[in-house]
Amino acid sequence: MRSHKNIPSLIVLAAVFILVFFHACKTTDQVPEPSSIEQWILGTSASIREDFSPDVFIQLKNAGIDYVELGLRAPKFYADSSEREEFCRQVKEAASEAGVRIWSIHIPYGKQWDISDPFDTVRQDVIKRHQKLFEIFEILQPKKAIIHPSYEPNLPEEREARMEACRKSLTVLAAETKAYGVDLVIECLPRTCLGNSSKEILWLLEGNENLGVCCDVNHLLKETPQEFIHKVGKRITTLHISDYDGIDERHWPPGKGIIEWNLVLESLISTGYSGPFLLEYNDSPENKAAMWKDMKSKFIQRSPL
Fold this sequence. Notes:
The protein is an alpha/beta fold. The chain has helices spanning 7-29, 54-63, 81-98, 120-133, 137-140, 159-179, 198-205, 225-232, 261-270, 285-301; strands at 42-46, 67-70, 101-106, 144-147, 183-187, 211-216, 236-240, 277-279.
């Protein structure tokens, strides 16, 4: 005859399972906890600068901006090896002494940097140009390298071939940056550029775990930023934050355009985003820090920005 001694234990286990199940369902429906955005470090792009004197980094730090993305417009980034190395050391030292972390470097873009060129001989030259540039990573020690999947315009009849060429290039270049301890990150782009939707970005990522994504919210013309974030998810490892009108990229300060910032922040939290909140528009460091403080406050209060 079967024993009934285990019945109370089974009842308790069933009750626990039901409680856990309903708690999980409830948690899924809850708004993400706003406190997690307090862990995000404020950063800014300095892509249009040619001057990286100590005062630049000191001003950022004093305003409360701890991370910076460097653009490579200064001619000395392309000088002879010894001059370039000395310049990079000066930039790195200035940032370090101010307490600012070089989070990312934005790789140049344009026709001569187009990794999607369908002509293999041209594309191989482009790859070599990137590989030469990557030598500065050893001194500047960024965490991320931001790369554009293509230049533009791109004709519809060329798009498939360019996507294939781009993915081949990314495989090579991601392995190259990894050797420097740097993650290669592809940026979503607008208009006819490759990577102008979550669908294309996910295709470019396919089979390459070394790649991350930079979500530039003002580049998204085919879907909302929050839709893109939900679809691409944890592959997003850095951001370019600015506002726009939904018609074209504008790089406006948040609040001037149409982006629903509370929804963007909720989407980022739901994917577990933990990188910096990196701004990409023209304004003073002080105004940028004040904007971020205001955005966080309005998010916690759930009022429109």
